[in-house]
Amino acid sequence: LSDGKYHKQIRIVENATGFGYEKLFQEYLTEKVSEVWVEDPYIRQVHQASRYLLYNFLRFCEMLVKGPCKVKTIHLLTSYDEGSGKIQQMTVLEEIKQSLSNYGVTLNIDFSSSIHDREIRFNNGWMIKIGRGLDYFKKPQGRFSIGYCDFDLRPCHETTVDIFNTKHTKKM
């Protein structure tokens, strides 16, 4: 894949399937990728329905561990959950951090109260901006419905994915 002047846009329409993380990110996850930055204010668990956000982040981390990239560090910038959810958020993120360390991957977690945009950057220059962040999948119909485990089969919310190479984006 050339990293020349590059901008690709993917429109995911409402209820579309076939957009699991591997399908979306695989061509940008070359062997050179050793560091990943995830900025998403909503990697937290405000209530029952939001627990999928933490699962989505875990699923994204699993994809990185499987390769072909050799990820050593993942940087997560998110916002704190409100109220009592903050303890649960920290507990889950610590569990993911510990689990990643078993695979030789360091998870650095930082919090910002002003973060708004969602983007994922790889140290090979690729940057992916998803309108809904990692949370573009619809809630499964049930725990034993098709698409519960395989995100390629999970219906999506409508969103836009923009892919850039940072060599060709202007710093302001």
Q: What is the CATH architecture descriptor?
A: 2-Layer Sandwich
CATH top level assignment:
Alpha Beta
Give me the CATH fold name: Endonuclease, Chain A
Q: What is the ordering of alpha helices and beta strands?
A: EHEHEHEEEE
State Rg: 16 Å
Summed up, the helix count is 3
Please report the total strand number as a whole number.
7
- In which range does the helix fraction lie? 10-25%
Strand arrangement within the widest β-sheet reads 1-7-6-5-2-3-4
CATH level-four homologous superfamily name: MITD, C-terminal phospholipase D-like domain
- Strand percentage, roughly? 15-25%
**How would a crystallographer describe the biggest sheet?**
7 strands, mixed
Spans of at least 5 consecutive residues with low confidence: none
Mean pLDDT: 89
Attribute tags:
MITD1_C_sf, globular, Endonuclease, Chain A, 3 helices, 172 residues, alpha/beta, 7-stranded mixed beta sheet
Model description:
Helix 2 (51-66) packs parallel to helix 3 (85-101). The chain starts with 6 loop residues before the first strand and ends in a 7-residue tail after the last strand. 22% of the residues lie in helices and 23% in strands. It has helices at residues 21-25, 51-66, 85-101, and strands at 7-12, 35-39, 73-78, 106-111, 119-122, 126-130, 159-165. The protein has 172 residues and is of the alpha/beta class. Strand 5 and strand 6 (126-130) form a beta hairpin. The chain has 3 helices and 7 strands, in the order E-H-E-H-E-H-E-E-E-E. It has a 7-stranded mixed β-sheet with strand order 1-7-6-5-2-3-4, covered by helices on one side. The protein has one domain: 2-Layer Sandwich (Endonuclease, Chain A), CATH 3.30.870.30. The mean pLDDT is 89.
